[in-house]
Every structure is written in C-alpha cells, then in structure tokens.
Amino acid sequence: MVAGLVSEEAQGFVGAGAAKAKPGSKAAPFSDGERAAVYRAIAERRDVRRGFLPEPLPDDVLDRLLHAAHQSPSVGLMQPTRFIVVRDAQVRRRVYEAFLQANVAASAGYDDVRRERYAGLKLDGLLEAPQHICLVCETGSARGHGLGRQTMPETAVYSTVCAAQNLWLAARAEGVGVGWVSIFEPAALRAILELPEALTPVAYLCVGYVDRFAEGPDLERFGWEWRAKLTECVRYERWGGASEDGH
Ligand SMILES: Cc1cc2nc3c(=O)[nH]c(=O)nc-3n(C[C@H](O)[C@H](O)[C@H](O)COP(=O)(O)O)c2cc1C
Q1: What residue ranges line ligand 1, CB within 6 angstroms?
Q2: Hey, what long-range contacts does 58-61 have (CB within 8 A, 24 or more apart)?
C-alpha cells in the first residue's frame, strides 16, 4: 500500500454486505419502505409560510435538524456553514421589520397586475414561527484547502445551500415546517445578527411545528407560478440535444 493511502477495507464502507462486496457487484439499495420514506420526504417537503404552531422545537429535534444540515456535502469537505438559532421574540420582530421593508421595495418593481397579485401572497412566517435558523457561509475558511474552489469560489455558498436542503428534508420527516425567506437586504440581516464581514448570509429559515403541510407549492395555489415539467428541463448529450419529448 502506498504510504498515506488507506486500504478499501479500512475506509469504513457502510451498508448491508458492504464488507463482503465482490468487485463489480452493486451496493445494496435501501429497503422498499426506506426508499419510499426518502422519496416521500422529497415530494412532501413544502415551503411553509402559514400555520406555524407556537410550541418551540424541543432541543433534541433541533439538534437532529442541525446534525442533518451539518452532514451535507461541501466543497473540499470545507463545511463552511454556521448556524444562528433565533428564538428571541425581539430579534424575530426586527428581522420581520427588515423583511417588510424589503418586501415593499420588491413589490414596487412589478407592473400593476403583478403587483396586486404579489400583494396577495404571504411570503414569510417570521412572526408566527417560534424559531428561525439563519445559515451563513464562512466563504474564506481555509478548511478543505481550497479543493474545488479555485475555479469556482461560489461553491462555498453552494455548500451552505446543500446544508439548508438537508435541514429542510429532515424537518419534513420530523413533521416540522420550514419556510425560506430571502426578501431582505443582506446588510439589514448583517446588522441585526451582528455578522462579521467573513460570514455571508445564505438562508434565513422560519422553523416550527405546523398544523398541516399543503399538497403543493403556495405559489401555485395562489396563481403566481407553476411547476415546470421535468421533460422541459432535461436534454441529452448537449444543450442543443434532444429532450425526452423529442424537441
Ligand atoms: C433560495 C430560495 C429562496 C426563497 N425565498 C422565499 C421567500 O423569500 N419567500 C417565500 O415565500 N418563499 C421563498 N422560497 C420558497 C419558494 O417559493 C418555494 O420553494 C417554491 O415556491 C416551491 O414551493 P415548495 O418549496 O413548497 O415546493 C424560497 C426558496 C428558495 C429555494
């Protein structure tokens, strides 16, 4: 064995039969029930803006969500994501006020018809959700030794987005609603959360138990936008190549 390399047996592969796997054999998939649960969490995850219950998350549930987020993939194993859990009602209100201000500015950019429709949307649950979690990215962290970031430095922030998605899916499995709010001036969030320059705010999440999960996206129900068909989004071999529906 070359010095510094680890044998496959010592690498800690997991899964039924992994230790005995013959070269070229397939790793075992999850059982049918386990797979169904994963796909269910993906299909039934919703962005939640309404119906938050006032009960705060117990520490063990919060801990599981943070662990799920912390296990996400990250460029070069950089793990640049830092989490700020906000429970204080006064801080939540200040964040809500920052949202209100940005929301007025956002609506001003639309024509009359769209602006009216925009005004009918509920785009946050900041006051209702008993806790928020802000995911920030330490973009300049030396962790990972720059692997994967030399050509695409933005992958640090992408890694934090992966953490947010892990948290979102784990929350659905726990029966916990998550709503992502991005309608902020970053400088306003920086000031409220006292973020140093080295930290970039990436995801601001409203988190809490909910009375129910909607079947589909709120934005569909309120006539703002509709989910695209997968066939419209997939091409083969190159951008100009055929799509599944032959176009
Ligand atoms: C990066 C990002 C930012 C978002 N910002 C907001 C937001 O500010 N307000 C809001 O109501 N929803 C926000 N959403 C939620 C999307 O509107 C929602 O994911 C989309 O409509 C699909 O609905 P679903 O998540 O329930 O499937 C955001 C989602 C993402 C991924």
Answers
A1: 46-47, 49, 123, 180-183, 217, 219
A2: 61/174, 61/176
Protein residue with its CA nearest to atom 25 in ligand 1: 47
Sheet architecture: strand order including 176-181: 81-86, 131-138, 199-209, 176-181
Nearest atom in ligand 1 to the alpha carbon of residue 224 is: 21
Over the chain, what is the mean pLDDT? 93
Question: Is residue 51 included in any domain, yes or no?
Answer: yes
Confidence of residue 23 (pLDDT cuts 50, 70, 90): confident
Q: Which domain holds residue 145?
A: 47-214
167-176 pLDDT, tens digit each: 999 999 999 9
What's the domain count of the chain? 1
The residue nearest atom 19 of ligand 1, judged by CA position, is 47
Instruction: Please report which residue ranges of 72-138 form alpha helices under DSSP H.
Output: 89-108, 112-119
Residue 12: inside a domain: no
Q: What is the pLDDT of residues 38-55, one digit of tens each?
A: 999 999 999 999 999 999
The β-bridge partners of 86 are: 132
Nearest CA to ligand 1 atom 10: 123
Distance 219 CA to ligand 1 centre (A): 9
User: Which residue has a Cα nearest atom 30 of ligand 1?
Assistant: 180
Which numbered atom of ligand 1 lies nearest the CA of 49? 11
Is 222 a domain residue? no
181: CATH: 3.40.109.10
**What is the C-alpha separation between 71 and 160, in angstroms, rounded?**
11
Has residue 228 been placed in a domain? no
